[in-house]
Amino acid sequence: METTNKFMKEAIRLSIEKMRAGNGGPFGAVVVKDGEIIARGFNQVTSSNDPTAHAEMVAIREACSKLGSFQLTGCEIYTSCEPCPMCLGAIYWARPDKVYYANTKEGAAAIDFDDQFIYEEIDLPISDRKMPFIHMMEKEAKVAFDEWADKQDKIEY
Amino acid sequence: METTNKFMKEAIRLSIEKMRAGNGGPFGAVVVKDGEIIARGFNQVTSSNDPTAHAEMVAIREACSKLGSFQLTGCEIYTSCEPCPMCLGAIYWARPDKVYYANTKEGAAAIDFDDQFIYEEIDLPISDRKMPFIHMMEKEAKVAFDEWADKQDKIEY
After folding, report:
1. What is d(CA A102, CA B141) in angstroms, rounded to the nearest whole number?
2. How do residues A88-144 score in pLDDT, each as one tens digit?
3. DSSP character at residue A131
4. What is the ipTM of this complex?
5. pTM higher than 0.90
6. Which of B40, B103, B5 is nearest to A146 (CA)?
7. Is the CB of residue A118 less than 8 Å away from at least one CB of chain B?
8. I need a labelling partner for A42 at 20 to 30 A (CA). Which of A12, A29, A143, B131 fits?
9. Coil vs helix vs strand at A57
10. Which helix (H) or strand (E) holds B3?
11. Residue A120 touches partner B, C-beta closer than 8 Å
12. Of residues B25, B82, B89, nearest to A148 (C-beta)
């Protein structure tokens, strides 16, 4: 538990200090491999005009860049808050071994972050969502999928 | 419908040509504002070692950078495939007016993309998920949330 605490402490430190410095919301994350922090991330949505720049996303991108891999096999992510659906999706695509989190999505909702709303929307059939999603031109688009299925030199992910 | 088709056609073109060029999976997207394409994206997960580099993510980041805003108010996104949970989350955070999509998540699952698995995992209680999520140190982390709640000069998003 000692080691674990050290990494989460760093994620929490980032969440507080970078918020104070005006980078964005109160969120921090680190990626750990072989007992070492290989990447740090903190929320910088408003300071970098990037709605995808959540702490986990920044840390995942940095870690993958360092490892020269699109996978975080053998890594653990420590995040100061339970991931929103976007970050959760990114985590599944990156496939670390384990995720540690401190604040909860209910805590995030209590300080007015939209996570809960997004979780609810994802569960709804597309036609019932508040954001309009319109389906069109599937036949034309499917050409790409058929070609991918047959592609001999593809790199799967 | 004429205008609409033109933008989706471009998203589909990107999905095919960039896949053929070896950038990554068969996915393309464009962001449209005031009848003009302001950003293009295509999947480059494997070519850029970035598991977050899905077509929609790339297009959203590019569009926000161009607009100098972390919001896509007044914009529409055309994507060659129904967004995965990560991209869906990013879309909700970016808040465009509308999303058009062509291929479906069922189509993506049929050519072995993990979207469906991620959708299923998101719905499970954390303790039932295949990826281990471990809760710890909430009390320490909540300091950041309390401070955010009281912060006078924060930029909400």
Report:
1. 6
2. 999 999 999 999 999 999 999 999 998 889 999 999 999 999 999 999 999 999 999
3. S
4. 0.95
5. yes
6. B103
7. yes
8. B131
9. helix
10. helix B2-20
11. no
12. B25
> B116 is written with which tokens?
């469906």
Alpha-carbon distances, residue A102 vs A89, B120, B156 (angstroms): 18, 23, 22
Q: Give residue-wise pLDDT tens across range B84-105.
A: 999 999 999 999 999 999 999 9
Angstrom distance (rounded) from CA B75 to CA B35:
9
Across the interface, which of A104, A134, A143 has its CB nearest the CB of B138? A104
Directed axis angle between helix B115-123 and helix B85-94, to 10°?
70
State the nearest Cα–Cα gap between A124 and chain B, in angstroms. 11
CA–CA dist B29, B59 (Å, integer): 6
Length of chain A: 157
- The DSSP element (H or E) to which B117 belongs, if any, is helix B115-123
CB contact at 8 A, B101 and B84: no
- Which residues from B are below 8 Å from A151, CB to CB? 19
Taking the C-alpha atoms of residue B123 and residue B108, their distance in angstroms, rounded to an integer, is 19
Spatial contact of A59 and A30, defined as CB atoms under 8 Å apart: yes
- Per-residue confidence (pLDDT) for residue A115, from 0 to 100: 86
